[in-house]
Amino acid sequence: SRPPTLQEGWTHMPSNTEITVAQLARLVGTPAAPAVVDVRTDDDVAADPRSLPAADHRDPLAVASWAPLYAGRRVVVACQKGGKRAQGTAARLRAEGIAAETLEGGFAAWRDAGALLVTRVALPPRDGEGRTVWVTRARPKIDRIACPWLIRRFVDPRAVFLYVDAAEVPAVAELFGAAPFDIDGAFWSHRGERCTFDTMLGEFGLASEALARLATIVRGADTDRHDLAPQAAGLLAASLGFSRMYRDDLEQLDASMPLYDALYRWCRDAVAETHDWPADRRSK
Prior knowledge:
The strands form two sheets. The chain has a five-stranded parallel beta sheet, with helices on both faces. The chain has helices at residues 6-12, 21-27, 42-47, 63-66, 84-95, 106-112, 143-155, 169-176, 196-203, 209-222, 231-245, 249-270; strands at 18-19, 35-38, 55-57, 74-78, 99-103, 133-137, 160-164, 179-180. Residues 3-13 have low confidence and may be disordered. The termini are far apart. Helix 10 (209-222) crosses helix 11 (231-245), helix 10 crosses helix 12 (249-270) and helix 11 packs antiparallel against helix 12. By secondary structure, the protein is of the alpha/beta class.
């Protein structure tokens, strides 16, 4: 067979500035996840308003104005099919010293692979800096930590959370344009036997086996139903411990994030693994 022409060689050469759907899917929801920038056209977004988890939708032609927001971070840029909009934006980011890759096949490949997508229409309004703002009762225990974890890992990494006196939540929400959550009468709250974490999974369209398993643990801990999952009692104990360790609710939230990261990774990757002592007991 003849050797490939120069043009054919370039066409089939693997790119060192792309990330595959499978590679990115393994990072989504973890602390190691890159920032995701969606540069699809308005028409493409209108045709399918869902987005990759934790993605920011930005204008590629204004990249010089928003590039500083991603300084020091790894970025994955996605357009509809991984073409000129994504590749040009990623190249421009790299010219600014930002480690930027494109998503191979773009949004279409991600969607067609059945990877997690977020329903954007459920998002509350953003503030002047593009962040969603949420408000709930002070002194959080389970739901009021689990929900911020979910939002920051899968919806809006820069989301702002306000913890205030329970009686002031509606007024603060109105004054500061914040979305109230985990409080009676709010849209983002318990529904029947389901807790606020369940509500957010449903409204954001976040359907995965791992998140559903985590939701059962959160629900069991939050509603005193430890029969739902054996891990629920442990989550309650750890959460009450964190609430005693920190007077500042935001410090408690920051300290608790790794707990939910660990539970999520167990739910996703380690449910079949066991541990015993002596290590060879099961082999006898």
